[in-house]
Write a structure and sequence with these properties.
This protein is an all-alpha fold. The protein has one domain. The chain has three helices and no strands. About 20% of the residues are buried. This is Holin family Hol44 protein (Superfamily V). InterPro entries: Clostridium_phage_holin. Keywords: Membrane, Transmembrane, Transmembrane helix.
């Protein structure tokens, strides 16, 4: 099962945009890490609703787009950290 199968193609462009926004938020000292996910969900749902209309499908796709962005970032981060720990051993 692929998470992208559930995401409408109209929302694909949100994922890299959310990565950039998430990175900028991570670099901002006044933004706690736990709030970044919620900020990305709000941005994704808002942009999706403005661009494609407010509907239950739009809401779900906005949440999935934020999830894909966060999951993709965490997969990349954990893989790099795991590889560096493995090299040290």
């Amino acid at each position: 099962m692929n998470l992208l199968d559930f995401l409408s193609q109209n929302y694909y462009m949100l994922v890299p945009a959310l990565w950039v926004i998430g990175y900028a938020l991570k670099q901002t000292p006044s933004v706690p890490d736990w709030s970044i996910l919620w900020i990305l969900v709000i941005i994704s749902v808002t942009v999706g609703s403005i661009a494609y209309g407010f509907s239950i499908n739009g809401l779900i796709n906005g949440i999935i787009a934020a999830g894909v962005a966060v999951l993709g970032h965490q997969m990349m981060k954990q893989t790099i950290e795991g590889a560096s720990v493995r090299k040290k051993k």
